[in-house]
Amino acid sequence: MSRIALLSEAVACQVAAGEVVERPASVVKELVENSLDAQATRIEVLIRKGGNSSIRVVDNGIGMDRDDALLCLERHATSKIKTGADLMAIHTLGFRGEALPSIASVSRFRLATRERGALVGSEVLVNAGKIEAVRDCGEAEGTQIEVRSLFYNLPARRKFLRTENTEANHVEHVLYLQAVGHPQTGFVFLNDERLVYQLPPGQTLRERIRDLAGAPLVAELLEVPEEEVAGIRVRGFMGRAGVSRSSRQQQIIFLNGRPVENSTMNFALREGYHTALMKGQHPVTFLFLDMDPAAVDVNVHPAKREVRFRDPAHVREVIVEIARRTLETDRASWTKTFTAPAPRSVPLPDFTMPLALPVEDLVLRRELAPPIPSPAVREPLPAQPFPEPPRPAPLPPPQPRPASEFKIHGILGKLYILMENATGLVLVDQHAAHERILFEEMSRRMESEGVPTQRLLLPFTLQVPPKDADWLTENLDVMNRAGIGLEPFGGGTFKIDALPQFLKATDPSQMLRDMIDELRETSAQTSKLRLGEDMIAKTVCRHAVKANDVLREPECLRLIQDLLACDLPYTCPHGRPTMIQLSYPELEKKFGRKA
Q1: Which residue, of 106, 330, 465, 538, has the greatest Cβ tally within 10 A?
Q2: What share of the chain is helix, strand, coil (3-state, %, to 5)?
Q3: CB count, 10 Å around CB of 114?
């Protein structure tokens, strides 16, 4: 007797619903995407009890006639695609034709729609996937869908729903993404008859972000000018250096109008920010990418949140370049604010502590280390620490400072340089600032002269999987330039006979595996010497001026001038800010002079 049988239509729809409809937020997402595809300029969403009891989505889109209203409830019925070739040219948010029948199969479902210019609309009532009534209705132009008692016919599935507040938060996040991605569309969201927000149509992206995330966040964002980079059109906003979150909740990326999640994009953003972020932090972005639909596959998962790229390396390069370029646009304004002329003030007595540390004892010059030996050297050398900066010669007498520059008033707590400019009070962390200066200088030397290597008296072998073996074979020159003596030994095995001098590892094999993973995540345009940057950051941290090193004014000037000449002066190598600005309005508010 045959053990294989065809599932009934009702069971098949419930199985499909398990992939498309995970929770009330999934229902809202699918219905709102259909409304956007229907050219709606205003969408209203109402939920009750977190969406468990009722969900209603009303739009003013093009609507449907009766035939389409009935056909849209059939599985794989869609107006978005017609042939397999259309899957390579998807310009709409929905296209699979599974959402409406899946939702209707696990709820009490009502669809009311009316085409523009039609005298009468159509209403369809569905109960657990079975059509119960079809009749005329007098609703407004557009489409109205109501979903009640979600998963009422699947009690086991209903038990997996969270609390009403949790489900409502998920719904709000879905609408947040759609509202950010479509500022030209108005959104109204009501939770248990309580108005959560009402966003007018026709807003700019900046206005929409301000209404949703608040004006303080918008003030910390840098605009990404709309431009086409290597066939990908990019626009949006990105957080300034140091503006970050502990999760990716506000790392929002849209691809062809669709909010997506992709590890390639996440790694690219992290790489683009580089040392402008602290470890464990993620940038704040509202980034929009538009590219040829044939170069991306959105038909990966029914939820359509995951995508795959035909050339992920190309996408990564573009995002890294955009992130770097956007941060550079802030450099000019940052430097201008930093060095803005301070207003004339009445001179006060000097209350700062006298300097006890001689000028020649401070490590403030840019010549950091003796010439670094070439990576090609393979002679046995005794183990030695990372090259230390030499003691510099005394600083030359300071040049007269133009009256248009900032004023230095002293040092607070033997750590923070107090300055005044046209905007207000500036505090510079002398240790963080000097770390940045030394880090960039040492990184440049590594780039130009390579990494000093130490040949091992007893080489060891490393066994790697086939995929890693292929990658290592293609990148032997990169590994050698990074100070790692690597040679194929056959059968996925490599011989290691040299390591960077400054590298100390109790388990060299695991360290090398970690390096391989890190290098594979970087873009082709990124220096492969970044794998040693953690060691560089730790080294310069030891050699930078400390909290108890009191600086004279000439030394403060030299420190600040060198900081302004850095490529990324906003943060230290660990992602901490090098300076903060307290504007006059902020100070007046603190003292109660302004409300």
Answers
A1: 106
A2: 35, 25, 40
A3: 25
pTM recorded for the entire structure: 0.76
DSSP symbols for 408-463 = EEEEETTTEEEEE-SSEEEEEEHHHHHHHHHHHHHHHHHHHH---EEEEEEEEEEE
Q: Which CATH class is domain 220-337?
A: alpha beta
319, 313 Cβ separation under 8 angstroms: no
CA distance 214 to 459: 58
Find out whether 224 and 236 touch, Cβ atoms under 8 Å.
yes
- In this prediction, residue 580 carries a pLDDT of 87
Q: In CATH, what is the architecture of 9-203?
A: 2-Layer Sandwich (3.30)
Q: Could you tell me the two tokens for 269?
A: 């953003």
Average pLDDT score over residue span 331-335? 71
- Give just the sign of the alpha carbon dihedral 84, 85, 87, 92: negative
Residue linked to tokens 């479902």:
109
What pLDDT, on the 0 to 100 scale, is given for residue 546? 84
Which architecture does CATH list for 359-446+540-590? 2-Layer Sandwich (3.30)
Provide the pLDDT for residue 534.
Answer: 65
pLDDT tens, position by position, 57-102: 999 999 999 999 999 999 888 888 888 788 888 888 988 888 999 9
For residue 59, the SS3 value is strand
Interval 230-273: pLDDT, tens: 899 999 999 998 888 888 889 999 999 999 988 889 988 988 88
For the chain, the residue count is: 595
Please name the amino acid found at residue 97. Answer: G
What is the CATH code for 455-529? 3.30.1370.100
574, 537 contact by CB (below 8 A): yes
Give start-end residues of each CATH 3.30.230.10 domain in the chain. 220-337
Between CA 208 and CA 201 the distance in angstroms is: 9
Query: What is the CB neighbour count within 10 angstroms for residue 591?
Result: 8
Residue, of 578 and 484, whose pLDDT is higher: 578
Mean of pLDDT values over 525-546: 67
Q: Which residues in the chain are classed under CATH 3.30.1540.20?
A: 359-446+540-590
What are the distances in angstroms from CA 593 to CA 54, 266, 434, 550, 585? 50, 44, 36, 34, 9
In DSSP notation, 381-402 reads ----PSPPPPPPPPPPPPPPPP
CA distances from 392 to 90, 108, 233, 371, 551 (A): 63, 79, 49, 15, 15
